[in-house]
Amino acid sequence: QRAGVGPRARAPWPGSRGHSGSQRYLRRRAVRRAAQPAQSVRVLAMVGATTKQRDFRFCIDRGGTFTDVYAEVPDGSPASEGKKSSFRTLKLLSEDPANYESAPREGIRRILEEVTGETIPRDAPVPTDRIEWIRMGTTVATNALLEREGARSALVVTEGYGDLLAIGNQARPDIFDLEIKRPSRLYERVVEAAERVRLFSRVDGGSSESKAATEGLEIVTGVTGEAMLVERPLDVESLRPKLQALLDEGIRSLAVVLMHSYAFPDHEAAVGKLAAEMGFTQVSLSSALVPMVRAVPRGHTASVDSYLTPCIREYLDTFLRGFDDGLRDGVKVSFMQSDGGLTPAERFTGYKAILSGPAGGVVGYAITTRAETTQPVIGFDMGGTSTDISRFDATYEQVTETETAGVTVQAPQLDINTVAAGGGSRLTFRSGTFRVGPESVGSQPGPVCYRKGGANLAVTDANLLLGRVLPEYFPKIFGDDEDEPLDAASTRSAFEAEARKINQELDLVGTGQEMSVEEVALGYVKVANEAMCRPIRQITESKGFDTASHVLAAFGGAGPQHACAIARSLGMSTVFVHRFCGILSAYGMGLADVVAETQRPFAGSYPSGGGANLPPADARAAADELAERCLETLVSQGFDRDAECECEVFLNLRYEGTDTAIMVPEPEDGDFARAFGERFEREYGFKLVGRDLLIDDVRVRGIGKSTLLQRVKIGEGTPGKLPDPDSVARVYFEGGWREAPVFLLEQLGAGAQLEGPCVVMNGTATCIIEPGCVAEVTEYGDLKIGVDVKDEKSKVVLDSSKKVLD
Fold first, then answer.
1. Residue 324 reports pLDDT greater than 90
2. Which of 57, 189, 251, 366 has minimal Cβ neighbours within 10 Å of its Cβ?
3. Residue 684: what are its φ and ψ, rounded to 5°?
C-alpha cells in the first residue's frame, strides 16, 4: 500500500504484484461511502460542528432575469422536534435596485423572515446563526464577458508576440461575411517580457547540445520530460518599470502567457511573484490555470480569468457584506463551477464561472432522471434570457475548449450549447420574417407585461397572450410596489399594434387573410421553438447520436411551456418535467458534489496491441501524483478520505500527425485506446488505422461526495380519479382556442394521468400538456409526458423498480 492511499485504494498497476490484465488501471479511489439511512440528511464534516439551530440550507441560482431559491427549512411542527425538514421555493427579479442590492441575499432574508416569524429589515445585516450552508450559481461572470464589463487588465507575453491573442487562430466563423466585426479585446495594454524558451531537439548527434554549451545557453528538463532550451533568461528588472506604468494607469489585474510555459513554468512564476510584490491584486498565470500546449487558447484563458475574477470578488463582497459576522465563520458558502462541481467561495475564479448557473440545472436533471429512465437525456433549460441545451448519458459530457463571446476558454466545462431564445428574447418583424432574439429585453424594464415601462414584446408576452402563462398563478412581483400581477391588457394592446403593422407590411389588409393577434403570437413562438431545436440537433446528430432516442428533460421558468412542441418537432416521445422545474438550476446545487481538479502536460505515446491495452507506467505515475493532490485538497475541506472521496482519471489523446485531441475518461476496462477509437469514429466517421496514439495531458478530477438534499416521495393518488381542476383556462394551440383544465401539482397524487390539453402549475413554472399528449405523475411528484399518446397501449409506463440514488 502506497503512503496516503487508504485501504479501499484502486487495483495495482499493470506489472505490479496481484494485477489482473482486465482490471481497471485506476479505479475510483475510496469510492465506497459509509452507509446512510435512506431518508436522512447527511451533514458533512466540512460544515463543522452543527447545532440544532443551524437548520436552514439554501440553494440559489442567480440568473440573468430571475433569481431562484430552494431552501430546506425546519418543519416547524412540535412533533418533529427539529428533526424533520420542509422546504420553501422563491423566485425574484435578479435586478431590482429600487428595492434591494443583492437578489440572492434578499431571497435568504425573505425565507428566514417567513419561517422564523422574525422581522429582518432590508437595511439590517441578515442573521446567520441558523444557516448551515449556502450554495450558489451565478451568471455574473457570463454577463460581464458578454457585455465587456470586466476589470481593467493587461497582458504580459513573450517579447515579439504582442499580437498573439489579437491574431488568434485566424478562424472565420462566417467565411462569406464581407463586414467582419471582431470581438473587442479583454486587455487594455500589452507588455512584452524579455525571455525565450523553446523545445530542444537532440536528433543531430549532440551538435545542438555542443552549440548551446558554447553559447552559454541552459538546457533544462520540462514538466513533460522534454528538453527545453532557455535561449533568453527572463529579464526581471527590465519588466519592472513596464509593470509600474500599468499600475500608474490604474490597472491592477494581469494575465501572463509566455511561450512553452505549459512545460517550463518558471518564467511565468517569476513574473507572477514580481507583480504580486508590486501591488497587482489579480495575477493569472496561464501555466497555473491550464498547463496545456497551444499558447493562444491558454493565453485567452488567462486573459478571461484576469478580466472576470475581480468581478467575481466584487460580487462576493457585495453578497457577503449584507450578513452578520457569523457568515464567514460558521456557514459553508460554495459556488457552482462550469464543470458541474462545487468549490468554496474563496476558490471561485473567473475562468471557471462562465457556466456557473446552467451547470446546476445539468446536475439537477441528470441525477433525478436516472431513477426514471435508462435512455440518454437532453437537458432543455429555457430561462428568461437564453436557452441552454446539454446531454447526459450515465456521465456528464464535458469539453476542454469552448468559445464564449468571441473568446476561447481552455478549461473543463460541461458541454452546454446556448441559444439566445428565452422568455425575455425580443420579438421583431423585419424583412417579412418573424425574428426572436438575439436581443433580450432583460428584467429592467423587461417584457411589456412586467409593468416596468417595457415597450418591446418578448416571448413571455406571446405565451401570456396565448394563455400559456396564467397571471393569476404567476408571482405577483411586478409594478412599483412589487405586488402586482402580469399586465395581460398591455400585452394584448401591444400585439394588436404589432399585428396591424405586420398585416400592412405584408399587404394583407382588406384581403380577408389578415393575421390575427393570436396567429402573430403563435408565429413568434414557432420561430422560438425552431431556434431551440437547432442546438439540440447539434449536440446529438453532429456527434453521431439519434435525437429521437433521447428523453427531453425540460426545466427553467419557460421550458415546460414549450417542451411538448419541441419534443414533437424532434420526434422525441418522452418529456420529463421535474417537480421543481422552474428552479431546477437552484435545486441542482444541493445535489452536486464538491470538485477539485488538477492536470499536467504529458509528452508520450500510448502503447498499442497486446492484450489489455493499458496506459504506460509514466502516465499512471502522473495520474497517481495528481490524484494525491486532489485528495489532499478535498481532505483540507473536511471530507473523509476513504468514505467521501473518489478520483476520476482522464487522458487527452490524439492520433500522431493530427492536432485533434479528445479528453477521454477512464473506461471500465482501462483501455483508453479503444475508448478513444470508438469516440473518434463516432464523431468523425472514420478511423486512422495504423497511427500511433499520443498522450498530450493527464487530468484527474477529485470528487468529495456532498449531496445534501434528499428527494421526498408524494402520496399515492386514487386510481382512475383526478381531483377537480383548480380552474379552467383558455389556451391557444395550432387549431385555435381550447379549454384546458388547470391542475395544481401538489394536489395530484403519484400515478395520476392527465390527457392534454391541460395545464399543470407547480408553483415555480407552468407546464403545458398539449393535445395528443399524456402526462403521468411519478412517485416523487415529477411529470413524465408521452408525446402524441392517446391509447392505453402506448401510455407512459414508469419503471417503479428503479431506486433514487442517495
1. no
2. 189
3. -110, -10
